[in-house]
C-alpha cells in the first residue's frame, strides 16, 4: 500500500495539470476569438472556436461564443444549431437564452422564440434582461401592451436593470400617460447616465414635462386610482401656475422640482418611500440639485446655453460632475414598485 501512494500522487498531479492546461486552452481560444471579433473577422473567430471545441466538446462558454460568432457572421442556421441545445443544459445561464433569442429574432422565428423566453423565465424568474428582450420581441410584432407588461415585470423583479425603464418610458410617452414616462425616464438616466439612449430619454423628459403642464387639469386621463400617481399629481398641481407664467425651462423645472421634493417629503414620503426622490433630497442638501436639473434639461433645451451655464457656475458644475461620475445609483430590491401594468 505504501508503494501505491507515490503512484497515486503522480496520477493526481498529472490530472490536475491536464485540467489546468484545458482551462488555460479554453481561455486562450476565447481571447483569440474575441480579438478576431473586435476586428470584424467573424469567420476566423468561428474557425478558432470550432477548433477549441474539438478538445472541449461540452464547454458551454465556447459554445456560447461560437453561437454568437455565427450570429455576427449572419450564419443564423449554424448559430441556431448550436444554441437550440442550450435550454436543455442544466448549466444554461441567462446569456445562453439571450443568444438563442437573438438568433431566433434574426430569422423571425416568433413561435420558437416566445416558447424559449417562457422557458427561460421559468428558470430565471427575476431576470430583468430576459423580460426586457422578450418585451422587445413582442413590441416588434406590434403587441405593445403585452410588451409593456413584461417590461413592468422586469422593473418589479430586477429594479436595477436599466433596459426595462428605457423601453417602458418610451412606451408610456406615446400614450396619454404623463406620469410614468417622467418617473421611469429619470430612473433610467440615473442607472445609465452616459449613453446615446440617455440623450434620447432626456428629450422625452423635457417634452414630458411640457405635456404635463400643457393641460389646465393635469389629472386628465391619468390613473388617479393609483396612490403614487395621485400623490405625484397632487404635488405637481400646486406648481402648475408658476410654470404657466414662466414656461417650461431648465430653470423653472429646477424651481418646481425643488418645491416638489420639499412638499413630497412633508406629505407623502413616509407612506410612499421612493429612492429617486430620496436622491433628489440628497442633492438638494448638498447644493447640487440645480446642477443636476441642468444636466437633465439644459443639455436638451439648448446646448450653448447649458455650456454657458457651466462656465458661470463652474464650482457648482464641477462639484456635481465629480459626484455624478463617482456615485452608484441603486434602487432597493423590493418595496418601491408602485405601478400596475395596464391591461
TrEMBL record:
Keywords: Signal, TPR repeat. InterPro entries: HAT, TPR-like_helical_dom_sf, TPR_rpt. It comes from Niastella koreensis. TPR repeats lie at residues 128-161. SUPFAM superfamilies: TPR-like. It holds the Pfam family TPR_16. This is Tetratricopeptide TPR_1 repeat-containing protein. Residues 1-19 form the signal peptide. It comes from the Bacteria.
Amino acid at each position: 500500500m505504501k508503494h501505491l501512494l507515490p503512484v497515486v500522487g503522480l496520477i493526481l498531479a498529472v490530472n490536475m495539470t491536464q485540467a489546468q492546461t484545458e482551462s488555460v486552452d479554453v481561455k486562450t481560444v476565447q481571447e483569440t476569438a474575441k480579438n478576431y471579433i473586435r476586428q470584424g473577422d467573424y469567420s476566423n473567430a468561428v474557425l478558432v472556436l470550432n477548433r477549441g471545441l474539438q478538445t472541449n466538446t461540452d464547454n458551454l462558454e465556447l459554445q456560447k461564443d461560437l453561437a454568437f460568432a455565427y450570429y455576427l457572421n449572419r450564419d443564423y442556421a449554424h448559430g441556431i444549431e448550436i444554441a437550440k441545445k442550450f435550454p436543455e443544459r442544466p448549466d444554461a445561464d441567462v446569456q445562453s437564452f439571450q443568444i438563442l433569442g437573438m438568433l431566433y429574432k434574426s430569422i423571425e422565428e416568433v413561435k420558437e422564440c416566445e416558447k424559449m423566453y417562457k422557458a427561460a423565465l421559468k428558470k430565471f424568474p427575476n431576470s430583468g434582461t430576459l423580460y426586457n428582450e422578450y418585451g422587445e420581441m413582442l413590441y416588434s410584432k406590434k403587441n405593445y401592451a403585452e410588451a409593456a407588461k413584461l417590461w413592468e415585470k422586469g422593473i418589479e423583479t430586477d429594479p436595477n436593470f436599466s433596459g426595462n425603464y428605457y423601453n417602458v418610458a418610451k412606451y408610456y410617452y406615446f400614450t396619454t400617460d404623463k406620469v410614468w414616462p417622467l418617473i421611469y425616464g429619470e430612473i433610467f438616466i440615473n442607472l445609465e447616465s452616459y449613453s446615446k439612449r440617455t440623450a434620447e430619454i432626456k428629450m422625452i423628459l423635457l417634452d414630458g414635462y411640457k405635456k404635463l403642464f400643457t393641460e389646465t387639469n393635469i389629472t386628465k386621463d391619468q390613473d388617479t386610482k393609483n396612490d403614487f400617481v395621485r400623490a405625484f399629481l397632487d404635488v405637481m398641481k400646486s406648481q402648475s401656475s408658476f410654470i404657466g407664467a414662466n414656461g417650461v425651462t431648465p430653470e423653472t423645472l429646477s424651481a418646481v422640482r425643488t418645491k416638489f421634493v420639499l412638499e413630497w417629503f412633508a406629505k407623502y414620503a413616509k407612506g410612499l418611500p421612493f429612492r429617486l426622490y430620496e436622491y433628489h433630497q440628497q442633492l438638494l442638501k448638498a447644493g447640487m440639485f440645480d446642477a443636476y436639473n441642468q444636466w437633465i434639461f439644459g443639455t436638451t433645451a439648448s446646448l450653448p446655453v447649458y455650456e454657458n451655464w457651466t462656465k458661470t457656475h463652474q464650482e457648482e458644475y464641477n462639484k456635481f460632475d465629480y459626484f455624478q461620475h463617482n456615485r452608484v445609483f441603486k434602487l432597493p430590491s423590493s418595496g418601491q414598485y408602485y405601478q400596475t401594468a395596464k391591461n
